Amino acid sequence: MADFEGVFASLADVNGWMTKDQARRLWDRAGELHSSQRIVEIGSFQGRSTVVLASAAPSGVEVVAIDPHGGNDRGPQEISGYEAEAEDDNKKFNANLEAAGVRDRVTHLRKFSDAALGDVTGPVDLLYVDGAHRFVPATKDIRQWGEKVPTGGHLLVHDSFSSIGVTLALTVTTFWSRTWTYEGRSQSMTQFVKGPVDRSTQVRSLLRQVAQLPYFARNLLYKVLLTLKLKNVAKVLGSTGEWPY
Fold first, then answer.
1. H helix or E strand, kind and range, residue 108
2. What's the domain range around 195?
3. Are 231 and 143 contained in the same domain?
4. In angstroms, rounded to a whole number, what is the distance separating the alpha carbons of residues 127 and 149?
5. Beta carbons within 8 Å of 49's beta carbon, 6+ residues apart
6. CA distance 138 to 18
7. How would you classify the pairing of strands 154-157 and 189-194?
8. What is the pLDDT of residues 118-159, one digit of tens each?
């Protein structure tokens, strides 16, 4: 049985945008699964979250990582034009999984998430969405892949209440949903459980998500200041000085 502290410490030199609290949430949800169940991760970058999921998942759990490594939506302010860097990401992704001893546990689909829908048949018991952060693709990921999650399964979404596109996607997919109930967040990683949802639970879920909007506004302010190279001002206002995630 892998140890969370040891696995997370081993990722110190693996690039990515995942805090320790977020890694712990991924670890806990993956560890709850049992043999024959499935994890799907949309957006793997260099494997930081993939290693956590594959290390935590019990034997017999299928782990599918979907990332085209195509040079688009590669990272903050890197929307397109990073094809050479993305090819290097793919090599590092495989090397990082190999170093962690989980390469044989992960099926990597080097495709865009919508193109990979037909490659995954059957239920997805844990869905982690950290793909393209623009409104349309983020909405499609939550809706299309979310349909594969059975009742009682979990959806985790990174950059919620941080990215404008992802947050807007949540407003149309989870805020007033009869399917998803909001369970909380670790920084920008939100967690939902699949319904059905009665009206009172629906209202509570909506109100809990609306209550995160001040956090969203603060993250947007930090991003504006960092883009304008006003890091010191951002830090005075409570920012770490790094891009919020």
1. strand 106-109
2. 4-211
3. no
4. 7
5. 16, 18, 23, 26, 41, 128, 130
6. 18
7. antiparallel
8. 999 999 999 999 998 999 999 999 999 999 999 999 999 999
